[in-house]
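Quick note —
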Amino acid sequence: MSHPKRNNEGFLENAWEWTPEAASVIASEDSITLRDAHWEIIQFLREFYQEHEMSPPSNRLFVKAVKDRFGEDKGSSIYLMQLFPGTPAKTACRIAGLPRPTNCL
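Predicted structure written out below.
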């Protein structure tokens, strides 16, 4: 099985080539073991991308979008940082096979 092509930052070059297996490989590179809580956010991001044809453009908007969908408990920077260390939007989008968020460093 060939893996989807990725750029030098580890983002898929084509979001439509993403598979759950690819997500697991990318997550393991960040020492993340995907659990149900991760998959919930990954699935949300995939749906967001299908609807808007873009990744949430910044960490702030990522947190807000999660909060709007799942409520205060999950829509917090702390919760998302525990799941996706570093810059949650960037890490989560990479694992979800989406393009790099435009405003994330």
